[in-house]
Amino acid sequence: MAVVPASLSGQDVGSFAYLTIKDRIPQILTKVIDTLHRHKSEFFEKHGEEGVEAEKKAISLLSKLRNELQTDKPIIPLVEKFVDTDIWNQYLEYQQSLLNESDGKSRWFYSPWLFVECYMYRRIHEAIIQSPPIDYFDVFKESKEQNFYESQESVIALCTHLQQLIKTIEDLNENQLKDEFFKLLQISLWGNKCDLSLSGGESSSEKTDVLNSLEDLKPFILLNDMEHLWSLLSNCKKTREKASVTSVYIVLDNSGFELVTDLILANFLLSSELATEVHFYGKTIPWFVSDTTIHDFNWLIEQVKHGNHKWMSKCGADWEEYVEMGKWVYHDHIFWTLPHEYCAMPQVAPDLYAELQKAHLILFKGDLNYRKLTGDRKWEFSVPFHQALNGFHPAPLCTIRTLKAEIQVGLKPGQGEQLMASEPCWWTSGKYGIFQYDGPL
């Protein structure tokens, strides 16, 4: 295996990783503690005194976690038995084996940022599962639902656009179909701006009309491999035998408005026959504040179906039907909430890697997926994406993200440096986006 650069970490004072560990993560923990406080009476109503004691226990465990982080204490093994506990603790041992620290202990600011950020969310989950009978509680549920409710106007506009498009889809020529495909891909890209972990759990809903902003946003797409996606899927459509399948897999990021944009895209893929089935991959546990779980996926479809607008409810009813018919399939796998980079998938989760190999195309949404695809390392801007994937090539894949972390590869020589000189925060502000493809051309 080729030599890879060092991991991003909080050691670099002033870096985005440093500021995340120093400011954003404690802010998220404070918000989680506050959420539990506010649900105290609900826990009492459901579980009596036992519910109140459980809430106190969870808050105490989370306060301890916040203190460990803020005082840069050693990172400790997980204790509560769960399906992934052993894998996590083995990974912690592996991280410790890489250290030059005199006490051989991984610490918050000196360990890889990807590892400590994932570890923090896994410890939040541990605090909840250690506190029955409230061990079912999703501490991020409220903010995910609020994000959806606050984006209603944009959701209605997108559902209306989709339903009008479907009415005329059979009359579109190839270029018109391609234009519509590109439009919905861009909507899915800019939907990725709605990330609650970036805003410390504060509201980040979509209140603007994305459809009418696409032309203005085009200059901010730094890498645009949409043509590759079109040629791949339109070729599959042309050469497909009658009973055969074209599968697009979407590895999801945020629930709420972004998930709506992903489902709109998935609906179009079926309606245009660019795909015959769409598989969605979400998280098994609440993760990075706004990441999609099976509950969020089902809840959102239900909300859209019962929306007070005819095209919105039509979308929801269609989506429910796609799920029932098996044309849309939701999966989760514990690997997505492990700290490993994706090049480790064949060893750590060979079953998942084998599943992904069946895809005609995999779309990876958002920043965390990009960080795990590229190992969250200090790559040069111009390093080819294929190289940064470090051997992870299960199927043709494309990453769709707005940039909110200090990592970007595959740029033209000098492009990243030029952006850095004019806009130092260009790669963390969410202002720029990419469609970056790896696969046969």
UniProtKB/TrEMBL annotation:
An example molecular function term from Gene Ontology annotations: protein-glutamate O-methyltransferase activity
Keywords from the UniProt entry: Hydrolase, Manganese, Metal-binding, Methyltransferase, Nickel, S-adenosyl-L-methionine, Transferase
Keyword Ribonucleoprotein applies: no
Keyword Hydrolase attributed: yes
Reactions accelerated catalytically: beta-D-fructose 6-phosphate = dihydroxyacetone + D-glyceraldehyde 3-phosphate; L-glutamyl-[protein] + S-adenosyl-L-methionine = [protein]-L-glutamate 5-O-methyl ester + S-adenosyl-L-homocysteine; beta-D-fructose 1-phosphate + H2O = D-fructose + phosphate
Sequence ranges assigned to domain Damage-control phosphatase ARMT1-like metal-binding in this UniProt record: 20-419
Domain of life according to the entry: Eukaryota
GO biological process: DNA damage response; methylation
E.C. no: 2.1.1.-, 3.1.3.-
Cofactor(s) for this UniProt protein: Mn(2+); Ni(2+)
Gene Ontology CC terms: nucleus
Role: Metal-dependent phosphatase that shows phosphatase activity against several substrates, including fructose-1-phosphate and fructose-6-phosphate. Its preference for fructose-1-phosphate, a strong glycating agent that causes DNA damage rather than a canonical yeast metabolite, suggests a damage-control function in hexose phosphate metabolism. Has also been shown to have O-methyltransferase activity that methylates glutamate residues of target proteins to form gamma-glutamyl methyl ester residues. Possibly methylates PCNA, suggesting it is involved in the DNA damage response.
Domains (record comment): Subfamily III proteins have a conserved RTxK motif about 40-50 residues from the C-terminus; the threonine may be replaced by serine or cysteine.
Record family assignment: Belongs to the damage-control phosphatase family. Sugar phosphate phosphatase III subfamily.
Name of this chain's protein: Sugar phosphate phosphatase
Species this protein is from: Rhinopithecus bieti
UniProt lineage: Eukaryota, Metazoa, Chordata, Craniata, Vertebrata
Originating gene: ARMT1
